[in-house]
Amino acid sequence: MLQGKRLLLVIGGGIAAYKSLDLIRRLKERGAAVRVVMTSAAQHFVTPLAAGALSHDRVFTELFDREAEQDIGHIRLSREADLLIVAPATADLMAKMAHGLADDLASAVLLANTRPILLAPAMNPAMWANPATRRNAAQLAADGVRFVGPNAGAMAERGEDGAGRMAEPLEIVAAVEALLAAGGPLTGRHVLVTSGPTHEPIDPVRYIANRSSGKQGHAIAAAAARAGARVTLVSGPVNLPDPFGVEMRRVESARDMLAAVEAALPADIAIFAAAVADWRAASEAPEKMKKDGGALPPLALTENPDILATIAHRQAGRPRLVIGFAAETQNVVAYAQAKRARKGCDWIVANDVSARSGIPGGVMGGDSNEVHLITAEGVEAWPPASKAEVAERLIARIAAALGAKESE
Length: 408
Fold this sequence. Notes:
The protein is α/β, with parallel strands linked by helices. It folds into 2 domains: 6-179, 3-Layer(aba) Sandwich (Rossmann fold), CATH 3.40.50; 190-283 and 297-407, CoaB-like (Rossmann fold), CATH 3.40.50.10300. The chain has helices at residues 17-29, 48-55, 73-79, 91-99, 105-112, 125-129, 131-142, 169-179, 215-226, 254-264, 307-312, 332-343, 387-407; strands at 6-11, 33-38, 59-60, 83-89, 117-121, 146-147, 151-154, 161-165, 190-195, 200-201, 207-208, 230-235, 246-250, 269-272, 279-281, 301-303, 321-328, 347-352, 368-369, 371-375, 378-381, 385-386. The strands form 6 sheets. Strands 13-12-9-14-17-18-20-21 form an 8-stranded mixed β-sheet, sandwiched between helices. The chain has a 6-stranded parallel β-sheet with strand order 3-2-1-4-5-6, with helices on both faces. The longest helix has 21 residues, at 387-407. The radius of gyration is 24 Å and the shape is globular.
């Protein structure tokens, strides 16, 4: 995705600067050319030597550099990049940007810039929550600056916890890819994705669910965004960060998910990766059901709406490509083929979620997958791969299929 892209990374002065070294490596792995500007404060945490060794380029640190400024270097640095990344973006750097200050190389480059800017804020939670920082962040967002993070968690300072952690390098890479996806194979398309489990309440404290983590659905949404699509992700309860550049709609139950899906239409492509509970309690107990040593309480079940079949059989507004998922524990391909015919969808992505799957840690909740793609033309067996790689391959396959249809 980043082959041949020119990126300028501004490293601010925070402890999270150590992550920027890994960020340089990750960007270089994907084919990007990376130049680095470091503030004087950043050099207290990481050295220009380390950043230069990883970027394979000179690191720029001084505004009044005689050699660089002979051709107005701070202007050239910003204009020669496709995208500027500020990571970590400290409270001080954000304040300078919001108010147009330019008293060092980093702030001068950012003020002279005409390219897109991506900020990865990193600071103490109290600094991030301070009204001044919130005003600066709002102003920068209004000016068109994009943000990734900050995340919540433990800080470097002992006992400090909350929102303010810099996004992880791979999260920043995903955000960079999404921002540079204009002209990608799905540019101009609307992709609708469902992800995660659903929770079907039994009483105020109990529910019916499954082991879905949402990792595959979220990876598909992220890959679609990187391919240039406008993405709506309808997700059940998961413990995952939102994919960058994706419109999130969070739901709990299957009925909530169907309503959110129908509200998100029309879409060009609909990918139903969520593991929707097949059944729910016929009636939800208004109070917690007590265990009193007597007879077991009755639990009558009723079927949930079939979201995949509902959308696949729509007469008006049906997406051009409807894709379902089939998590099976036996007869994986045969059951998936029958499901495709029964549901009326175009493709089914089938995977073996049994203990026999051979995937370390298992498919449900794990980071890897081995799938079969079931289409009207036949069955494609894909090799074991990470869920991110499965997502990339599926999105590439979708782009190719839509391109072939349009050329017919």
